[in-house]
């Protein structure tokens, strides 16, 4: 396949500051998107249902229109010029918005809707919010399905923008990315827990006892220290012994119930498992700062009725089990033994 190229001595035609959209064939923009995604004329042609010769002709037109080669031959195949790299992301966003604007969608009716939403979060937030969300779904939208994915702080902005994920539930700060919107769902605090038949901890948990115990640290990355360690260092107190690091929130309560370790963890997590795992709950002997949980979405879906309903559902799910959480604030002391 031969793609016509400008000779090195030829100067690209200047591109006017203001582009007259009325003179541009929209099909060229679809072809350009495919070319920039595939960096290969034949694959781009197959992607949009054109012949190879038709895509080659479209590429020639695009080069003339934009005053840039767009794709040039490299050692491993075709490569994008800097101008093409600059165009790729905004062009994809623009075409996605155009598709959404042209698509006819009936009003969203939760009671009769049949669709799937994808929420990216961590296991703790799923534990806190998912039971309430499922209860609301059963009552209001029995035909709506949920997919819950593990959130990756580096990739979720792009997933939200492309609509591959509808909503993320995370802790601040939000990744710096254009178009992201956020709203606080709740403020969480911490409690300390040990198993009910712990050999050392009885009715109270003071700081001296707390520091002598072996600790469990929930660390998604498996390294570093927690908020408690930072507080101890600021106060000039001896460091605690972290005997076990776990990457998931849900492992930690079970580990406490089968050991003599102590865990400092979010209150709502312990409220979900305290009774099942026979745990004693205490206020932290050192004040630990609270943290916020927020939901994040892309501004593309601000006005979409289905997404508005989903965000409202998640916000209301926080309160479905709030009575259990309020009850857990009345810390019950184990009888002296």
From TrEMBL:
Keywords: DNA-binding, Transcription, Transcription regulation
Keyword Cell inner membrane found: no
GO molecular function annotation: DNA binding; DNA-binding transcription factor activity
Top-rank taxon: Bacteria
Keyword Ubl conjugation: no
Domain called HTH lysR-type: residue spans: 24-81
Similarity field: Belongs to the LysR transcriptional regulatory family.
Protein name, as recorded: LysR family transcriptional regulator
Organism: Corallococcus exercitus
């Amino acid at each position: 396949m031969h793609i016509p190229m400008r000779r090195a001595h030829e100067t690209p035609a200047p591109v006017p500051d203001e582009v007259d959209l009325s003179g541009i064939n929209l099909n060229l923009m679809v072809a350009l998107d495919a070319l920039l995604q595939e960096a290969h004329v034949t694959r781009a042609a197959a992607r949009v249902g054109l012949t190879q010769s038709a895509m080659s002709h479209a590429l020639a037109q695009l080069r003339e229109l934009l005053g840039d080669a767009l794709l040039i031959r490299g050692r491993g195949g075709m490569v994008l010029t800097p101008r093409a790299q600059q165009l790729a992301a905004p062009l994809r966003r623009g075409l996605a918005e155009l598709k959404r604007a042209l698509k006819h969608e009936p009003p969203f009716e939760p009671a009769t809707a049949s669709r799937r939403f994808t929420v990216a979060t961590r296991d703790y937030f799923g534990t806190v919010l998912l039971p309430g969300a499922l209860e609301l779904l059963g009552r209001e939208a029995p035909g709506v399905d949920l997919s819950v994915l593990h959130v990756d702080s580096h990739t979720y902005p792009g997933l939200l923008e492309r609509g591959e994920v509808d909503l993320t539930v995370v802790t601040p700060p939000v990744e710096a990315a254009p178009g992201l919107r956020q709203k606080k769902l709740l403020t969480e605090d911490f409690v300390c827990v040990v198993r009910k038949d712990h050999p050392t901890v009885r009715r109270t948990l003071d700081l001296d006892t707390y520091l002598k115990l072996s600790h469990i640290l929930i660390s998604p990355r498996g390294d570093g220290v927690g908020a408690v360690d930072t507080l101890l260092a600021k106060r000039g107190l001896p460091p605690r012994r972290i005997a076990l690091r776990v990457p998931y929130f849900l492992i930690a309560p079970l580990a406490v119930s089968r050991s003599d370790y102590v865990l400092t963890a979010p209150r709502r997590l312990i409220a979900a498992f305290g009774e099942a795992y026979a745990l004693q709950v205490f206020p932290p002997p050192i004040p630990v700062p609270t943290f916020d949980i927020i939901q994040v979405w892309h501004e593309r879906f601000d006005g979409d009725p289905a997404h508005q309903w989903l965000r409202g559902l998640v916000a209301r799910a926080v309160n479905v089990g709030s009575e259990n959480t309020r009850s857990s604030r009345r810390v019950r002391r184990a009888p002296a033994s």
